[in-house]
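Backbone shape codes:
===
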Amino acid sequence: MSFEITILGSSSATPIYQRHPTAQVINIHERFFLMDCGEGTLIQLNRYRIKFHRINHIFISHLHGDHYLGLLGLISTMHLQGRTTELHIYSAPELREIVEIQLKYSETNLRYPINWHFTDPKRPGTVYEDDLLVVECFPLNHRIPCTGFLFREKQRPRKLIRERLAEYQVPVSAYPILKAGQDFVTETGSIIPNRELTLDPQRARSYAFCSDTIYDPRLTDTVRGVDLLYHEATFLSDLEDRARETFHSTAGQAAAIARDAQVKRLIIGHFSARYKNLYPLLEEAKAVYASTTLAMEGDRFSIE
């Protein structure tokens, strides 16, 4: 089943060199989530033929414009195209005021409801959960309150081996305990080990999104062992002082988080407009953590 991230934007602050500000679409089991919504996100959704009406949940990391200025355009276009399904937005509470005042003065009465879910940038917590997935938020260390997000599949039950069930004449009533990992006890008291009747389930997959943050080793515990980590890498290491001053990270620092957290793959993005050529950023990161990739617009990252 699908677990895929599509990069819509990877620039910091300024759209430049055909790069747009931060935005990503996350497809998990055909549930579509939008992560941040920088300027031009609607254009990018159309460019990469992503049906944005399938997006029912939008997560905004913080209230710097390059992470949310595309939101009103997206909301308005959904309205103009006749959306009636409710939209869920997860953000700092102030974003609601920003959106509603613009809708008020444009005299726009949306055809669909917006359900707001407010994050607390000072403490972690669960912000979304369904039968297959949990999304958690966690604090990032930026100049203004900022939130990271962690998407985790729930562990699926063990898979039943139908032929073995028939062979041992296992009743349907015993299926739930087998899926939970317990052995089967026959009417005569014989124990059939669970491994004889079931297979291991598909491994639960995970993705962590760290938008704007100064280098903060405390993140390693939060994102430890995830399959895929996105971490901002605004500058090269020769501008480490500038990164610290603006509460951003260098490519090498992002890679250090990935290495220390033992993640499987790292994507770096949020590139400064001073870099037309991004490969020096990639080289710096790969020198610290080899399994690093640039967040290039239109790229899709699948977690198998």
